[in-house]
Amino acid sequence: MKLAVFDFDSTLMQGETLEFIAKEYNIELLMKQITTDAMEGKIDFFESLIQRVSLLKGAKENKIKEICENLPYTNGAKETVSELKKMGYKVVCFSGGYETATIPAQNVLGYDAQFSNIFHFKNGELTGLLGGEMMFSDSKGKMLLRLQNILGITSKDTLTVGDGANDISMFRYADKRVAFCAKPILKQNANIVIENKNLTELLNYL
Hints:
Number of domains: 1
Oligomer: single chain
Number of strands: 7
Largest sheet: 7 strands, mixed
Order of helices and strands: EHHHHHEHEEHEHEHE
Helix content: 25-40%
Distance between the termini: 14 Å
Radius of gyration: 16 Å
């Protein structure tokens, strides 16, 4: 058995979930700046997460779910997941984003499991609060190590794919570290760099 772990926003999906939601509420530019700073490692990931979700306080639950169920997936994402599974990989999504997006995506793209964060809704509106498994800059690395221990998989048989600073922690536990259309800080920690926005390109390195 082998393990492939993908980031979601700007990796399996084209763009950032919160920015698609923010566009609906006319705060896209502010959201984009905070996201960019976080992905470039300029501000703490947890702090950026709190800031970004708080901006959406009062957003309607049904509207957020509608947006998250209609996100544009990256070219080649479904095909890549399928091919990896044929090659004996368990394919998992680690997302600093939200299960309102990663669960519908799992049904479309076919990955085996997802670990993400959860919006807190009350009376049909977003409270501006959240919880979950991927809230800190080192969350992905810690979860990857747990999965490797449970499944008996070493770094030699682990592939990780991401685009931003919060993916660095999981790179530490994988021999194949793919920076996909990534920020410079992640490229510095990768040993495979893909600039073309088609995930099937990573199959050439396996």
